[in-house]
Predict the 3D structure of the following.
Amino acid sequence: MLMTHIRPLKAINKYCPRSGKPVKPDSLTTYRGYTIGFTNPSFRSDFLTNIEKKHDERDFFDGLINEMNINKPNNCLLVIF
C-alpha cells in the first residue's frame, strides 16, 4: 500500500489584511509564488478577481515577501585575507 503525506500549505501571513482576523485554511491562494491567506473565501476571490485594484493588499503582501527575502541568508562566502 502506497502511503503519502500531504503537508498543508501555510500562508506567509497569520492575519488577513482586510479583517485583521486569523487566516483560514479554506481561504488560501498564491501570490508571486507565495501562499497567502484571508479570513474567508470571498475576500480571497475578490483579491484575485481585482488584484490590479487592490493596492493596499498587494503592498501588505509585497512587504512580507520583501521582509522574508531580506532575512533569508544568501549563499555567498566572504573570505577576508
Summary: The radius of gyration is 17 Å. The mean pLDDT is 86.
